[in-house]
Structure formats: structure tokens, C-alpha cells
């Protein structure tokens, strides 16, 4: 039984083969010094959330990092260590949580990223500044 109208089904089928074709560059890993460095830092941030492990925060954020946010209409700031202490265990609904890099701009040793944390009860949008320090990307 076909649930799609025939024109739509044909369109999906006819476009499918093009999804299999990619430029060769899209299949290769990023070169060192490009977006791979800041992306690794962002993945560490995501791992802290997914695994409930603050050690990823202390490894990924610089010692003097500040986490700034608005809560109840007021500006708040946490240190890296205050933030890391919030990660005690994975969330019970972890399987329903989605984290995405929406935008990543890299310029030399600096980068900025916009990431979303899409959770069942809330959608967070984080704006991050990253630097390449000691050969690796740090938040």
C-alpha cells in the first residue's frame, strides 16, 4: 500500500540517487587547524551533557571560562568549575535529547559557534566563543 501520492513518491525516488553522490571533499576529514579543532571542543561539551560527566567540561573549557546566561530576567555567571559540578549523571530522558551545531565560523585561531540543546521540556541556544590554545580548541 502506497501512502504517498504518486507525484510525491516519484519525486522522492528521483531525488534519492543524488543524495548518494557527494563531492570528494565532503567525504574527507577536516585538515588540522580548520573546523575540526573547535568541533572537538563542542563535542566535549555535548558529551558532558549526554553522559552527565563534568570532567568533559573541565577538559574542554579554559580555567578562566565564564558561563553567562539569563535566568528569571537577571544576568548570571558561573565559573567553569561551578558549571562542571552540575553534571552528576545522565538525564533519565537522555534518549530523547538532541544536540546540534547550528553554525560554526572559524577564523585562524578563533571560532564562534551556535549550538542547540533540544530537550523535551526546553530548547537551549548556546552562543560559544572558542580559541585554539596549546594546539587544541577550547571553549
Number of strands: 6
Question: CATH topology, what is it called?
Answer: Nuclear Transport Factor 2, Chain: A
CATH class, named: Alpha Beta
Oligomeric description of these chains: single chain
Uncertain residue segments:
1-33
Can you put this structure into words, describing what you see?
This protein has 4 helices and 6 strands. The strands form 2 sheets. A 4-stranded antiparallel β-sheet has the order 3-4-5-6. The protein has a two-stranded antiparallel ribbon with strand order 1-2. The protein has 139 residues and is of the alpha+beta class. The longest helix has 16 residues, at 36-51. It has a single domain (35-138), classed as Nuclear Transport Factor 2, Chain: A, CATH 3.10.450.50. A hairpin with a 2-residue loop joins strand 3 and strand 4 (110-118).
List the helices and strands and how they pair.
Blueprint: H1 6-20, H2 36-51, H3 55-60, E1 66-71, E2 74-79, H4 80-84, E3 98-107, E4 110-118, E5 123-133, E6 136-138
Antiparallel strand pairs: 1-2, 3-4, 4-5, 5-6
In short:
The protein is 30% helix and 32% strand. It has helices at 6-20, 36-51, 55-60, 80-84, and strands at 66-71, 74-79, 98-107, 110-118, 123-133, 136-138. The longest helix is centred in the N-terminal third of the chain and has 16 residues, at 36-51.
Key features of this structure:
32% strand; 139 residues; 4 helices; 6 strands; two-stranded antiparallel sheet; single chain; Nuclear Transport Factor 2, Chain: A; four-stranded antiparallel beta sheet; alpha+beta
Amino acid at each position: 500500500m502506497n501512502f504517498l501520492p504518486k507525484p510525491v513518491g516519484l519525486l522522492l525516488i528521483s531525488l534519492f540517487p543524488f543524495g548518494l553522490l557527494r563531492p570528494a571533499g565532503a567525504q574527507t576529514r577536516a585538515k588540522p587547524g580548520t573546523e575540526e579543532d573547535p568541533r572537538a571542543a563542542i563535542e566535549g561539551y555535548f558529551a558532558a551533557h549526554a553522559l552527565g560527566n563534568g570532567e568533559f567540561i573541565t577538559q574542554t573549557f579554559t580555567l578562566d571560562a565564564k558561563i553567562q546566561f539569563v535566568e528569571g530576567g537577571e544576568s548570571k555567571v558561573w565559573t567553569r568549575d561551578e558549571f562542571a559540578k552540575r553534571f552528576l549523571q545522565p538525564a533519565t530522558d537522555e534518549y530523547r535529547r538532541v544536540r546540534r551545531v547550528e553554525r560554526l565560523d572559524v577564523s585562524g585561531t578563533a571560532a564562534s559557534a551556535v549550538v542547540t540543546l533540544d530537550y523535551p521540556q526546553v530548547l537551549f541556544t548556546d552562543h560559544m566563543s572558542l580559541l585554539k590554545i596549546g594546539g587544541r580548541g577550547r571553549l
